[in-house]
Write a structure and sequence with these properties.
The structure holds 2 protein chains of 2 kinds. Chain A is mainly alpha-helical. Chain A contains 10 helices and no strands. Helices cover 77% and strands 0% of the residues of chain A. In chain A, helix 2 (21-43) packs antiparallel against helix 3, helix 3 (55-86) crosses helix 9 (203-216) and helix 5 (99-128) crosses helix 6 (136-160). The two termini of chain B are 29 Å apart. Chain B has a 6-stranded mixed β-sheet with strand order 6-7-8-3-9-10, with helices on both faces. A 4-stranded antiparallel β-sheet of chain B has the order 2-1-4-5. Chain B has a 4-stranded antiparallel β-sheet with strand order 12-13-11-14. In chain B, strand 9 (204-209) and strand 10 (212-218) form a beta hairpin. The longest helix of chain B has 16 residues, at 168-183. The chains are: A mainly alpha, B alpha/beta. Chain A: It is a multi-pass membrane protein. Chain A: It comes from Salinisphaera orenii MK-B5.
């Protein structure tokens, strides 16, 4: 195992975060906090409790999930796309470093950043709404699993993308809509019966539900199913990354 | 004789498009050599280097770097190799010292600021150590690329078109850098379009064309074996036409009539020259001066490519 290489890439990626603090940390924290202020404090006070939880508190897990997913994807996709774009990928490919080590370092850094942001947003949310965490260990497990899985997904997007538009395509046109339609702002049983069934095809529903359960002990679907879904998605991403490196897809001819 | 530091057997590369860039390359490069790979655009130079450095997968054949197979033992092989690609590909927002230190870490070496600083000094980058790469000139960036490639102390350095697009002064400066590296024990494989560069720098030259190594020869031997020479005889009085007594020789009269030009190959027996001088004397043609010129490597190269190395 080339630990020096892993540490070098990881530290460089983390250093990029500190170098671009406003863009990487401050901006997502502020934009997510606006949801707490608008939906939680301003509008939320006029909405009934959902599943015995105040609306302001109800939306917090979904919004943290949104951050974990979008930040994981954007951090990891940019981290591997940028060297491809400027050509410095040659150095990575010519170094004595295995594919597993490349993934560990880039995905590890992206997942660290998104998990860190998730925790900062959690802390920020607690300033606006009353929060409780019924199952802290499970909360951290969902947080880490989601960060890692979506960072891995972002890594795949970064390798697949051959322009900046494609880099933004999946997070903006797929992940964000799925998150908004995945029960972030409502419980599934608030939907009409047909939509209650259709929404189960949205994988984000399971993530938001499981994560919210770790806070308040209430869920739209069973926690076990949520864990299975995130694990299946993680395994699918890992299989895809393994295939990418085995074939050299968009990396090596 | 010590084992070659680079050994290539039957290396072949066919791209997904069906284009075969390399057709069974065999090559051995001894330790400490400066080897120049010469060839026209699309000949396969960069593909060959890219395979050896791990950027492109070979279709067939095998290669070793310092005894380590580049595929099955890629970690050990790549630790020995430094690569300076043709394009100036740098993270513009990084600082010089940081990017060189990054390269060292990437290649599995522990932090060694002294080593990094030494490389920067050797490449005249010390004054720029805290400068952002975007502020450097093209020549300086090229030096940074070399510094990055040397940060992990490789024993083999690949330079892909190291002086492409740089001015004459900088090119000569780069040559000095390369020579100094060789003095320190690094084996250097460079590709170049500048034939003068290969002639000036390389111990041996390999000419590659259409994916095949046309010839591999020691530089001076290649020049000697294949070098066409031009003998210019400055006359003591002008000639209007070539005297009939000299018609058997391959001579042309210069436009102004003050010189006779004889083109010959150094591989031919020297008797032709002796006979020429005897016949000149017999024909009463007086000489003021004599000058010989070797054909340029470019002329040799074109000749080699056209004849498939049989010249």
């Amino acid at each position: 195992m080339n630990f020096h290489a892993i540490a070098t890439i990881y530290k460089t990626e983390m250093a990029r975060t500190w170098r671009t603090l406003f863009q990487s940390v401050v901006s997502p924290v502020i934009s997510t906090s606006l949801y707490f202020v608008v939906f939680g404090s301003a509008i939320g006070s006029r909405i009934d409790e959902v599943g015995g939880v105040s609306y302001g508190a109800f939306i917090v897990p979904g919004l943290i999930m949104l951050t974990l997913m979008t930040q994981g994807i954007s951090n990891a996709s940019f981290a591997i796309y940028f060297p491809k774009f400027i050509g410095t990928i040659y150095e990575l490919l010519s170094a004595p470093i295995s594919y597993v080590e490349i993934v560990i370092s880039y995905v590890g850094a992206a997942a660290t950043k998104s998990a860190m942001l998730g925790l900062i947003i959690l802390a920020t949310a607690s300033l606006f709404v009353d929060l409780e965490i019924a199952h802290p260990f499970m909360m951290l497990l969902f947080l880490v699993l989601t960060s890692v899985t979506f960072s891995l997904f972002g890594f795949i997007i970064g390798i697949w993308a051959d322009n900046f538009e494609k880099l933004q395509l999946v997070p903006l046109l797929i992940v964000t809509p799925l998150t908004f339609l995945g029960g972030t702002f409502y419980a599934i049983d608030m939907l009409p019966p047909l939509w209650q069934k259709i929404t189960l095809f949205n994988p984000v529903v399971y993530l938001v539900s499981g994560f919210r359960w770790s806070f308040y002990g209430v869920a739209d679907v069973s926690v076990g199913l949520s864990l299975v879904m995130i694990t299946v998605f993680l395994a699918a991403c890992m299989a895809l990354v393994a295939w990418i490196f085995r074939t050299g897809y968009r990396l090596k001819s | 004789m010590s084992s070659p530091i680079i050994s290539i057997q039957g290396l072949t590369k066919t791209f997904a498009s069906g284009f075969t860039a390399l057709k069974g390359i065999d090559l051995e490069i001894p330790r400490g050599e400066i080897f120049a790979l010469l060839g026209p655009n699309g000949a396969g130079k960069t593909t060959l280097i890219s395979i050896l450095c791990g950027l492109v997968n070979p279709s067939d054949g095998r290669a070793t770097a310092d005894g380590h197979d580049i595929i099955s033992d890629y970690r050990a092989a790549r630790e020995k190799i430094g690569l300076v690609p043709q394009e100036l590909t740098t993270d513009q927002f990084e600082k010089v010292r940081a990017t060189v230190a990054f390269s060292r870490g990437l290649f599995g070496k522990p932090k060694d600021p002294e080593r990094v600083d030494r490389v920067l000094r050797e490449l005249s980058l010390w004054d720029k150590r805290d400068a952002m790469l975007m502020t450097l000139s093209g020549g300086m960036k090229r030096r940074v690329m070399i510094a990055k490639a040397l940060a992990h102390e490789p024993s083999i350095l690949f330079l892909d078109e190291p002086t492409a697009g740089v001015d004459v002064e900088l090119r000569r400066s780069m040559w000095q850098v390369v020579r100094a590296l060789r003095e320190s024990g690094v084996t250097i494989i460079l590709t170049t379009h500048y034939l003068e560069e290969a002639e000036q720098m390389a111990d041996r030259i390999g000419v590659i064309n259409a994916g095949e190594l046309v010839v591999v020869e020691e530089t001076h031997e290649l020049m000697r074996r294949l070098g066409e020479k031009r003998l210019t005889l400055q006359l003591d009085r002008p000639l209007e036409r070539l005297p009939a007594a000299l018609a058997d020789h391959d001579l042309t009269v210069s436009d102004d009539g003050w010189a006779l030009i004889h083109t010959y190959n150094s591989r031919d027996r020297a008797a032709g020259i002796s006979a020429l001088f005897r016949d000149l004397d017999a024909a009463g043609v007086g000489l003021r001066d004599v000058d010989t010129q070797k054909s340029s490597l470019e002329e040799i190269f074109v000749d080699l490519v056209n004849t498939g190395g049989r010249a």
